[in-house]
Amino acid sequence: MPARRPARQGKPTPASPRVVAPVPGERRPGDVLHWLMKSEPDVFSFADLLRAPARTTGWEGVRNYQARNYMRDGMRVGDRVLFYHSNAAPSGVAGIAEVARAAYPDPSQFDRTSEYFDPKATREAPIWMQVDIRAVEAFAQVIPLEALKADAALTGMEVTRTGSRLSVQLVSPAHFERVVALGRR
DNA sequence: GCCAACGTTGGC
DNA sequence: GCCAACGTTGGC
Which in A42, A107, A145, A166 has the greatest CB count within 10 A? Predict the structure, then answer.
């Protein structure tokens, strides 16, 4: 299921990683990283994830290199994810999910009938990757972006910055815990 | 629906 | 490799 709205793409080149992986070999077994992933609830909401088989979905449709690199190079099974509703009323964090499967090729890039189809991609040389995400905990209500911006403890959090467009973001442990505290309140 | 911010493309 | 034009994201 589409986790992201369609993003028309021009010329993906597999070798374009000017984006540094978030966690060079410094992660130890057992370390958990924290992320934020955006989805437009009209396309795929946290409620949709709760209803999905095994409360899990493939995060297909990401067509941005930095977001791809975060998923491919940064995410591990068990990492925690803030599920963010974008283009919504209100936009904000709807719940917690976790990485259920590490990165693998996004099948939609090969599918001519998909809006995410990428003619440059081949099975031998896939361009786009996805992870699987499983719902962990729904917040009683969405924490609006406005509340995130107003919270002093969340100063500097990427999603609160004006013009923050990246659909997969790294979140510091402190920011993650703070958002969870707000969500449980 | 508007439009600011930002990423991508392509001419040079 | 620069950068203007263009397309997209996403808050409001």
Answer: A145
Buried b / exposed e along A71-81 (16+ C-beta atoms within 10 A): bbbbbeeebbb
Contact between A140 and A181 (Cβ < 8 Å):
no
- Residue with CA nearest C1' of nucleotide C10: A87
Contact predicate A39/A45, CB 8 Å: yes
Q: How many domains does chain A have?
A: 1
- pLDDT tens for A101-133 read 999 999 999 998 888 888 888 899 899 999 999
Q: Measure the CA–CA gap between A110 and A125, rounded to whole angstroms.
A: 11
Residue A11 included in any domain: no
Residue A116 lies in a domain: yes
In this prediction the pTM is 0.88
Whether A27 is in a domain gets the answer: no
- Binding residues for strand B (Cβ < 7 Å): A 9-12, 64-65, 161-166
Q: Any idea which nucleotide's C1' is nearest the CA of A145?
A: C11
* CATH code of the domain covering residue A63: 3.10.590.10
